[in-house]
Predict the 3D structure of the following.
Amino acid sequence: MALRASLRRPLIAVSAMLTVVMMVLVLVNSSTRPSLPNLTADDALPPGHVPPPVEPVALMALDPADARAANALQPFVTGGFPAAAPFRMSGDAAAQARAVDCVAAAILYEAGDDPEGQRAVAQVIINRARHPAYPKSICGVIFQGSERATGCQFTFTCDGALNRRYSDSVWQQARGIAIDMLNGSVYAPVGLATHYHTDWVRPYWSPNLEKLAQVGTHLFFRWPGFWGSPRAMQGSVGGEEPWIAQLAALSPAHAAMLSPEALAALDAAPEVSAAAVTAAVSAVIPRDQLALGDSIILMLDRGQTPDGFPALAKAACGTRSYCKVMGWTNRSLMPMSEVMSDAARASMSFSYLRDERSGLERALWNCEQFPRDSARQCMRR
C-alpha cells in the first residue's frame, strides 16, 4: 500500500500540472483573437474611427468546472475604477414606460429576483446605451440581435425564457429597480462594465476585456483603454423606445392597437405570431381595478374572421393559469373607466375565459356582430 501511495503522488502532481497547462493554453489561444485598438483613456477619439465590434456571444468548449477555473485565472482590475454617471431617461411617458418594462424584464430574467444582481445588470444596460458601439435606446440595447436564432446580446431574448412567468410581486420589484436605475441611481461596483457572463462559462471575448467585479455568479467586464473610459460613454439616448413584440403578454406598455397588417396575419390556426399579439393587446386591467383576475383587452376588426379570435386570446394569455380576455371592435368604448359600463358590455364582440384550477376554458362571440352555428357560442345579451 505504501508503494502504491508513493507512486500515486507523482501521478496526481503530473495530472494537476497538465490541467494548469491546458487552462493557460486556453487563455493564450483565446487571446490570439483580434485585439482592440491600442488607445488609452486619455486619448481623443480618432477622426473616422469606429467603435469595437459587438459580436455574437461564442463560448469556449469548456465544462463548468474548467470554465470557472479559467475565469479565476484572469485577474480583476486593481487600483479602483470610476463609477458611471447618473442616467435619467428622456422621451414621452409612453416611451419611458416601455424603457422601464424592457429593463424590468432584462434584470428579472437575467438575474432572477436578486436585487443586487438586478441593479448590476441594469447598470450594464445603461452603460451600453451611452456607448457608441450600441443602439441608442434602452429597449434597442436589450433586444439587440434577438431576431436571430443565435447572436442575441441578452440570452433571455432568444432562449425562450420569456415563456416563464414570475409572480406579480416579483415583477413589480423588478420594475421598481428599473425605475430607480433609469432615474439617477447608480450601481458603482460594476463601474463602466458593458459585458458580463456567469462564472461557469467562458466567452471568447473574456481575455480581451478587463474584469471589474463579481456579483453573485456573474462576472463584469469593460473594454480596455479609451473604449472603457468615461469619455467613451457620453452618448445621448434618444428617448424613442421601440415596441417589443416579445413583451406584449407581459407589459401593457408594449401593447398596441390592432393594425390591418396584424389582422391579415391572423386566421383560425392554433398558433399566432408574437407581432399579432402585440398589435392586438390594448391593455391589461390591474386586478385591483376589476377584481376579475388577469384581464386583457383586445381591439378587434369586424373584417377579421371570427374563428381566429380564440387563437389570438390564447396567445395573449400566454401561460397564465387564470385569464379573462374581452374584445371590442368599437374603439370609442375602450376607455378604462367605462370598460364595464352597460354600453361597453353590450357592444363587446368576443370574450375568452381560462381557469385551469376549475378546468374551464370558454370562448363566446357577440352573435349579432359575428353569427355562429351554435347558440351556445353566443354571449348572453
Q: What stands out?
A: Residues 23-31+52-232 form one domain. The longest strand covers residues 322-328.
